[in-house]
């Protein structure tokens, strides 16, 4: 079996690794042959010469370094060994350099055009590229949070030929293909990723929701078949398609329709509310809203609020999620139940962990 695999690998002349290996083996073989030939003709006239010195001379000669510490003196050593060593050595080394250069250029091209298999782990996938500006804003938000700041980002889409330069400058990687195909998702190493963002293919186009649903469904299928959880958040254009996307069992759904209309009314009624909400939803400054599973049920919501006020970290408990329903500022007599999630306002997500380990114990 091993011999068969090696033979198949060796016969694959299109693979740059095979070409480089063959060239290296050729250089090594010629180095030894020329060294042995040099030793055969030169040793009789130079008894102090050994085989290692001869091989060293062959390597220096093939690379055109030419230290001059050893040189042939016999006629046979000069014309039967040294002369062919010049020609074959320089030619084969030039071929090796050309192959390596070609392999590097090919890798860069494939990486730019999105045809390489991603080997990253704990990375973030972004399905679809509705625009460079939108992606850059998402990158800014990811870099603003300590939990996602150092995670690499990979974009999967089929509507661009190669990654735009602003995204390449941000070290974003690219997989070209349909994100709703299982083969494309595996090429992006979806099983080892930290999470997936599903964006609409075209901003504001309700028809993009069907594609979003297809991507979410195939990711859910991969998750069920492998047993590995894949955190997925999708952006929906039309709120009427919310029920459809919920069937894909994505972890989070953002509905863009209606947000601007609601915001403009609230800004009219309460001037300045837009800036307040903008500060809450960005990870680049100030405090943000976080959701954590309640690990200590049975406690009174009001008591937990008082405990957060007395805690040294800047943290505020403002609501809870129960049975999928979000309740901000619930009645103070509410008792936290198993399965509830708590909504809190803090500078970092880890603040709540230290709170539960300390005050809430």
- Rg to the nearest angstrom? 32 Å
Largest sheet: 6 strands, parallel
In one word, what is the shape?
elongated
H and E order:
HHHHEHEHEHEHEHEHHEHEEEH
Find the structural class using helix and strand composition. Answer: alpha/beta
Low-confidence stretches: none
Keywords:
361 residues; alpha/beta; six-stranded parallel β-sheet; four-stranded antiparallel β-sheet; 14% strand
Structure explained in plain terms:
The chain is α/β, with parallel strands linked by helices. The chain has helices at 2-11, 16-42, 51-62, 75-113, 132-143, 165-168, 182-187, 208-226, 242-246, 259-269, 273-281, 301-310, 350-357, and strands at residues 124-127, 153-157, 173-176, 195-198, 232-236, 252-255, 288-293, 315-322, 325-328, 341-346. The strands form 2 sheets. The chain has a 6-stranded parallel sheet with strand order 3-2-1-4-5-6. A hairpin with a 2-residue loop joins β8 (315-322) and β9. It is elongated and about 105 Å long.
């Amino acid at each position: 079996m091993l011999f068969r695999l090696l033979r198949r690998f060796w016969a694959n002349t299109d693979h740059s690794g095979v070409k480089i290996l063959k060239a290296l083996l050729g250089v090594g073989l010629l180095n030894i042959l020329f060294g042995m030939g040099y030793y055969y003709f030169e040793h009789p006239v130079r008894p102090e010469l050994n085989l290692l010195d001869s091989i060293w001379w062959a390597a220096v000669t093939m690379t055109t370094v030419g230290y001059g510490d050893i040189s042939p003196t016999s006629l046979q050593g000069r014309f039967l060994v040294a002369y062919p060593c010049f020609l074959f050595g320089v030619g084969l080394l030039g071929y090796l350099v050309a192959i390596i250069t070609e392999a590097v250029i090919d890798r860069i091209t494939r990486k730019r055009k999105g045809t390489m298999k991603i080997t990253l782990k704990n990375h973030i996938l972004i399905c679809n590229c509705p625009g460079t500006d939108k992606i850059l804003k998402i990158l800014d938000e990811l870099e603003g949070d300590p939990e996602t700041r150092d995670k690499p980002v990979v974009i999967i889409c089929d509507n661009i030929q190669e990654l735009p330069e602003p995204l390449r400058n941000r070290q974003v990687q690219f997989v070209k293909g349909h994100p709703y195909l299982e083969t494309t998702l595996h090429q992006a190493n979806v099983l080892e990723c930290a999470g997936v963002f599903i964006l609409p293919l075209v901003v504001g186009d309700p028809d993009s929701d069907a594609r979003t649903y297809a991507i979410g469904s195939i990711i859910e299928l991969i998750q069920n078949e492998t047993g590995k959880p894949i955190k997925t958040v999708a952006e929906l254009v039309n709120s009427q398609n919310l029920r459809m996307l919920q069937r894909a069992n994505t972890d989070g759904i953002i509905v863009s329709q209606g947000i601007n209309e609601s915001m403009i009314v609230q800004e009219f009624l309460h001037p300045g509310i837009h800036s307040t909400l903008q500060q809450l939803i960005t990870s680049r400054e100030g405090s943000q809203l976080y959701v954590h599973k309640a690990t200590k049920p049975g406690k009174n919501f009001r008591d937990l609020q008082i405990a957060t006020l007395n805690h040294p970290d800047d943290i505020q408990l403002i609501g809870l999620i129960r049975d999928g329903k979000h309740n901000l500022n619930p009645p103070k007599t509410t008792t936290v139940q198993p399965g509830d999630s708590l909504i809190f306002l803090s500078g970092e997500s880890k603040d709540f962990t230290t709170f539960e380990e300390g005050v809430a114990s």
